[in-house]
Automatic annotation (TrEMBL):
<dbReference type="InterPro" id="IPR009057">
    <property type="entry name" value="Homeodomain-like_sf"/>
</dbReference>
<dbReference type="Pfam" id="PF00440">
    <property type="entry name" value="TetR_N"/>
</dbReference>
<dbReference type="InterPro" id="IPR036271">
    <property type="entry name" value="Tet_transcr_reg_TetR-rel_C_sf"/>
</dbReference>
<dbReference type="Pfam" id="PF13305">
    <property type="entry name" value="TetR_C_33"/>
</dbReference>
<keyword id="KW-0805">Transcription regulation</keyword>
<protein>
    <submittedName>
        <fullName>TetR family transcriptional regulator</fullName>
    </submittedName>
</protein>
<dbReference type="GO" id="GO:0000976">
    <property type="term" value="F:transcription cis-regulatory region binding"/>
</dbReference>
<dbReference type="InterPro" id="IPR001647">
    <property type="entry name" value="HTH_TetR"/>
</dbReference>
<feature type="compositionally biased region" description="Low complexity">
    <location>
        <begin position="14"/>
        <end position="26"/>
    </location>
</feature>
<keyword id="KW-0804">Transcription</keyword>
<feature type="region of interest" description="Disordered">
    <location>
        <begin position="1"/>
        <end position="39"/>
    </location>
</feature>
<dbReference type="InterPro" id="IPR050109">
    <property type="entry name" value="HTH-type_TetR-like_transc_reg"/>
</dbReference>
<dbReference type="InterPro" id="IPR025996">
    <property type="entry name" value="MT1864/Rv1816-like_C"/>
</dbReference>
<feature type="domain" description="HTH tetR-type">
    <location>
        <begin position="44"/>
        <end position="105"/>
    </location>
</feature>
<keyword id="KW-0238">DNA-binding</keyword>
<dbReference type="GO" id="GO:0003700">
    <property type="term" value="F:DNA-binding transcription factor activity"/>
</dbReference>
<feature type="DNA-binding region" description="H-T-H motif">
    <location>
        <begin position="68"/>
        <end position="87"/>
    </location>
</feature>
Length: 232
């Protein structure tokens, strides 16, 4: 009887194990696949969270020098080692943050331009320049970081490139559309883009360095005055 009971138990165990291996195998595989699918893009998502946290911290700190790997990790809620999976060191994090901020500025300018009817080419140039000025005034620490390193050295005869050049090209393209629509310019569109960008950048720099700021409206008004000098 005892042997019979033992033999009766083991087949049930074997059957249950067999059921788990066969009957539930599809369910287990689906769960593993679901977890694998959830991991797709997690690395890039974490990188974005790291940059977003660094951006928030930069708004709260005195400057980029106070930004640390440990502080950013604490803000994200991860171990510092997790940041090193995306950025080799603090310098790489700062470089990535500058690129992130240029992306934010680019989106702000695109959004401002898109709100102006396509047929209003002059209004679109104005919207681009206003968005640039407002971003720079609203994000002083970020703007200093974005413009701190200047242009990289390049070989003679090679056209400069980088996020700042991309912004100038976008403004120049907007001036070119003005010329195509019959709006007269005092200078070629590519030079108009440089003049507008350099003028706006310089005015924003004065805004940040001035102890007694005249207010954001004065900077935006300057941008309008600058445009009036470019259009014939």
């Amino acid at each position: 009887m005892a042997d019979g009971r033992r033999n009766d138990r083991h087949p049930r165990r074997a059957g249950a194990a067999e059921g788990n291996a066969s009957g539930n195998n599809g369910q287990v595989s689906e769960e593993v696949q679901a977890r694998t699918r959830n991991r797709w893009g997690e690395g890039e998502r974490l990188r974005g969270e790291i940059l977003a946290a660094a951006s928030r911290l930069l708004s709260e700190l005195d400057g980029e020098d106070a930004l640390t790997i440990r502080g950013v990790a604490r803000a994200v809620g991860i171990a510092p080692a997790s940041i090193y999976q995306h950025f080799s060191d603090r310098a790489a994090l700062v470089t990535g943050l500058a690129e992130h901020e240029f992306g934010r500025l680019r989106l702000a300018m695109e959004a401002a331009e898109s709100r102006v009817p396509a047929e209003d080419s002059v209004g679109r140039v104005r919207a681009l320049l206003h968005a640039y000025c407002r971003f720079a005034m609203d994000n002083p620490g970020h703007y200093r970081l974005m413009t701190a390193n200047g242009a990289s050295r390049i070989a003679p005869g090679v056209r400069p490139h980088g996020p700042t050049i991309d912004l100038i090209d976008r403004i120049s393209a907007a001036f070119a559309r003005c010329a195509e629509s019959g709006v007269a310019l005092r200078v070629p569109a590519d030079r108009a883009g440089v003049i507008a960008f350099v003028g706006a950048h310089g005015r924003v720099a004065l805004f940040h360095s001035s102890g007694r700021r005249p207010g954001e409206d004065a900077v935006v008004s300057f941008a309008d005055e600058l445009l009036s000098l470019i259009f014939a």
